[in-house]
Amino acid sequence: AANKKLLILPGDGIGPEVMGEVRRIIGWFERERGLGFDIEEDLVGGCAIDAYGVPLADKTLDLAMGADAVLLGAVGGPKWEPLPFEIRPERGLLKLRKEMQLYANLRPAIVFDELADASTLKHEVVAGLDILIIRELTGDLYFGTPRGVETLPDGTRRGVNTMVYTSPEVRRVARIAFDLARKRGSKVCSVDKANVVETTEMWREEVIKLHGEGYEDIQLSHMYVDNAAMQLVRNPKQFDVIVTGNIFGDILSDEAAMLTGSLGMLPSASLGDPDESGRRRALYEPVHGSAPDITGQGVANPLATVLSFAMMLRYSFDMDAEAEMVEQAVRNVLKSGLRTGDIMQPGMAQVSTTVMGEAIIREL
Amino acid sequence: AANKKLLILPGDGIGPEVMGEVRRIIGWFERERGLGFDIEEDLVGGCAIDAYGVPLADKTLDLAMGADAVLLGAVGGPKWEPLPFEIRPERGLLKLRKEMQLYANLRPAIVFDELADASTLKHEVVAGLDILIIRELTGDLYFGTPRGVETLPDGTRRGVNTMVYTSPEVRRVARIAFDLARKRGSKVCSVDKANVVETTEMWREEVIKLHGEGYEDIQLSHMYVDNAAMQLVRNPKQFDVIVTGNIFGDILSDEAAMLTGSLGMLPSASLGDPDESGRRRALYEPVHGSAPDITGQGVANPLATVLSFAMMLRYSFDMDAEAEMVEQAVRNVLKSGLRTGDIMQPGMAQVSTTVMGEAIIREL
Ligand SMILES: CC(C)[C@H](C(=O)O)[C@@H](O)C(=O)O
Ligand SMILES: CC(C)[C@H](C(=O)O)[C@@H](O)C(=O)O
Q1: In terms of domains, do A163 and A73 share one?
Q2: Gene3D superfamilies from the entry (chains A, B) (predicted)?
């Protein structure tokens, strides 16, 4: 088989540190398993602003469009916060999502047995938690127009943003939710605000329609977003797959991530549609940010990025067995008592980013 | 002093049951404390649809506009769910908010010592929690136009809703947040999505501007809504007053309510501006819904509505001492071990709605 083309964008802050460990794991797969990767590396976010003057250079976008998969570290940091809206680091990320049409953001919220006590929720409420939140990623308030702030003649300022979805946009992300639910608990909860916001009433209707077109085996439910925010706290284990729009998904997926108590462990995938050759545009990144407070100290937790790489093996390359291997290695390392600072517990051994990466390779 | 004009709208489901206990408490204040109330009662929500064909009749709105304060139970129920968008029970509530210009929704999230174990969060995370969320209530996606769903020539449906805020709308609700923070912990956290949504970037700028106009004693911070959803789970006690827009506030205030573990205990107030005579339009209601599953059984918890009445005494009638009395009575009744079903704990005495109401009066 031809080599897989991989674009690695370590980004800012701890991004390069955690990505270093993933590169070593990739090296292991190349040596020991004969996997062939053609790897390019480039800049995104603050470091791209420094080098190229923009958070995402055209040539970087071209590399991303030509890659079989993109692996990203993290973007942003205090250095770039004073910059104006249009050239801030996060614009690079938003542009990547939009240009690559990565409309389905997969955000697992998983509690590892060994780390269940790190949650602020009671053990019995979160132990064994395994939710998959699917957030639409290319529509909604994020990209809708008209948008912006105008100043009226009397000096009043008026801000406008537009929530917009079309029925095909709803259907394609709902289809991913149904397809993935089938490989898990076969339950999908679609979250909207259909009692107030007409766009999301349309969302609900389209999800129901698609469900009737061959997904009757999936148990479909609907929930208002305010209630979903409550139910995630009350009893998160009632959920299997949640599918929702971009802005509600931004809020709920972060809430769900925090339920687990270990943000440093959570990966994500952002998927587009397969092209003519069957290749699906895809970007993988940890949920955590660039963590400027611990940057350069060698203490960051690489496991969320490692698990993002496992998602890449599964969703971009259909290498379920290899993905499982990586995930099992992470579980084994946790079981062996190794912990980075962010997930440190009494009686465990606190280790550096590099030692954690080496431990994963040993387990492999 | 002239009698206070009170409009009582018990609404649907358990609304009439819990409101019955508040009426007895009002009776106690009239008899024992010489408070004078002129009380009118009318229908809102599903029962108004049944009786008048609309969820809020014009004559009911007139009564509300003429009242010194409105006390509402709950609206909605399965009977009215199949109805079209425009005449559903919740439209009555939204119309009341908009017509009365109740732009500031005060949602305390308080953990009562006796009920701290009811939370799904660990005791130390929530014990003593006392947050006040102030949600803007008359703008945003709830009322912005254009809105609606159109069908394009090719059959594609396209839904649009509009988030809109003006600077005076931001300032008036932020002012309430600063004023109320001054009577509490003097901390305000303004929640937005200023890194993506320009309307909320304007929100942030206006809050900062107002802060500089005489509120420098208040410690002001800003947080993105996704992070706020996380921080509420991670460490809710970091917050004092949170101020945010209508849709973010809908989500975050319900999340915060569920942190307490006792939805049946939480009151709310929705305030407008004082008119020429100094009278402030205001509506008070419990956070919980109409609870159709337990309607008519006499087991509903009246305490959220009782505490909403206490908020009325405080915010509409400046009767801080009387409000305190009611709140202390609620704490004492909890201490004495009485519980309705929703907050029942081992070793406590489970009582009916009426017995709970009587216990409050005995404590008064
Ligand atoms: C950085 C920001 C633009 C981004 C978003 O809101 O989508 C982030 O919060 C995320 O969830 O990936
Ligand atoms: C019933 C619904 C319209 C309402 C809202 O979204 O405002 C409710 O959720 C609330 O928070 O009072």
Answers
A1: no
A2: Isopropylmalate Dehydrogenase
Three-state DSSP state, B4: strand
Q: What is the pLDDT of residue A9?
A: 98
| Phi and psi angles of residue A216, each rounded to the nearest 5 degrees, phi first | -65, -20
pLDDT, block means (10 residues), chain B with 364 residues: 92 97 96 94 97 96 96 94 86 94 97 95 97 98 97 98 98 98 97 96 97 98 97 98 98 97 95 88 96 95 98 96 97 96 94 97 96
- What does DSSP assign to residue A164? E
Structure token pair of residue A56: 């995402």
Q: Are residues B272 and B255 in the same domain?
A: no
Q: Is A250 a catalytic residue?
A: yes
State whether the Cα torsion A207-A210-A212-A214 is positive or negative: negative
Q: Identify which of B202, B233, B252 has the shortest CB distance to residue A149.
A: B202
For CA atoms A339, A342, A347, A351, the dihedral sign is: positive
Q: Which two tokens stand for residue B347?
A: 């070793």
How many domains does chain B contain in total?
2
φ, ψ dihedrals at B192, nearest 5°: -150, -175
Rounded CA separation A203/A245 (Å): 9
Side-chain-side CA neighbours of residue A143 (13 Å) = 18
The CA distance from B168 to B209, in Å, is: 12
> Within this chain, do residues A13 and A107 fall inside the same structural domain, yes or no?
yes
* Residue B84 neighbours by CB under 8 Å, 6+ apart: none
Question: Quick check: A202 and B162 CB within 8 A?
Answer: no
Pair B19, B57 in one domain: yes
Q: Which residue of A has its CA nearest to B236?
A: A120
- Look at residue B109 and tell me if it is in a domain: no
The three-state secondary structure class of B256 is helix
Copy the structure tokens of residue B74: 């709950």
Q: Are A224 and A195 in contact (CB under 8 A)?
A: yes
B146: left (phi over 0), alpha (psi -120 to 50) or beta: beta
**Residue A255 contacts by C-beta under 8 Å, 6 or more apart in sequence?**
A229, A232, A233, B229, B230, B232, B233, B255
Asked whether residue B179 falls in the same domain as residue B78, the answer is no
Q: How far is CA B186 from CA A93, A344, B181, B330, in A?
A: 36, 34, 5, 26
Whole-number Å distance, alpha carbon B190 to ligand 2 midpoint, is 21
Q: Is residue B94 part of a domain?
A: yes
DSSP conformation letters of B196-241: T-HHHHHHHHHHHHHHTTT-TTSEEEEEEHHHHHHHHHH-GGG-SE
Amino acid identity for residue A270 in this structure: S
Does residue B346 have a cis bond before it (omega within 30 degrees)?
Answer: no
Pairing, β A219-224 against β A187-192: parallel
B245 inside domain: yes
Q: Which one of B213, B239, B260 terminates a domain?
A: B260
β-bridge pairing B338-339 and B148-151: unpaired
- B290 and B169, same structural domain? no
**Residue A356: closest CA among A341, B185, B30:** A341
- C-alpha span between A254 and A252 (Å, rounded): 5
- Output the DSSP codes for A71-133: EEEE---GGGTTS-GGGSHHHHHHHHHHHTT--EEEEEEE--GGGGGGSSB-HHHHTT-EEEE
- Atom 5 (ligand 2): residue with closest C-alpha? B250
Domain with B88, as residue range(s), is: 1-102+265-364
In a domain, B224, yes or no: yes
- CATH value at residue B230: 3.40.718.10
| Cα–ligand 2 centroid distance for A147 (angstroms) | 25
The verdict on A125 and A250 lying in the same domain is: yes
Q: Which of B216, B238, B260 is at the close of a domain? A: B260
Is A253 in the same domain as A306? no
Q: Which residues of B are catalytic?
A: 142, 193, 226, 250, 254
What is the band of A1 on the pLDDT scale with cuts at 50, 70, 90?
Answer: low
